[in-house]
Design brief:
Blueprint (H helix, E strand, L loop, with lengths): L2 E7 L4 E8 L3 H9 L1 H7 L7 E6 L6 E7 L5 E12 L3 E9 L12 E10 L2 E10 L2 H9 L2 H9 L2 H6 L1
Antiparallel strand pairs: 1-2, 2-8, 3-4, 4-5, 5-6, 6-7, 7-8
Length: 161
């Protein structure tokens, strides 16, 4: 399993997931840079993603929805704030309605994804920071650790294919 560590800290309002992949950083980068590949790993296996808009550049936006096994759609967005290909990118990640308008009742996280290569393998560090401890607690109760871990654990199979 690629996910090697998960830590959350209500005091600093952060969730950090660490994973290691048997592929170079450039290949892991492509998973996020290509909307069709992103669809295969964004969301747990039982909630496949559909990427509707994908602009992984500073100021760009990624709009997506995940579909539950019952067919219910859950939308979200990234507002991209920084990109240093293929090492790191930052974005705000939020919940949205099906027109991709931000849902003000749900927490927004500020994320930094970092990919560090060593001996042909890549260590990925995913850090999400929330404005409030309550916001972090809410997503923890919604199953963000389990969902994100299941999503990330799909990357090895994708890059091997």
């Amino acid at each position: 399993m690629p996910v090697t560590d998960v830590k959350h800290d209500l005091d600093t309002r952060t969730l950090t997931i660490t994973a290691e992949f048997a592929a170079p950083a450039e290949r892991i980068w492509q998973v996020y840079a290509d909307p069709r590949q992103l669809e295969k790993i964004w969301g747990p296996p039982t909630y496949p993603a559909t990427v509707v808009e994908h602009d992984l550049t500073p100021g760009g936006r990624v709009n997506y929805f995940m579909t539950s096994p019952e067919g219910e759609k859950f939308a979200g967005y990234w507002k991209v704030t920084a990109v240093d290909e293929p090492r790191t990118f930052s974005f705000e990640d939020g919940f949205a309605d099906l027109d991709f308008n931000p849902n003000p009742d749900m927490p927004v996280s500020t994320n930094v994804y970092t990919f560090t290569e060593h001996d042909g393998r890549t260590r990925a560090t995913y850090v999400a920071a929330y404005d409030t401890a309550e916001g972090l607690q809410k997503v923890l109760e919604m199953g963000v650790v389990e969902g994100a871990s299941a999503a990330i654990n799909q990357i090895d199979e994708l890059v091997a294919s």
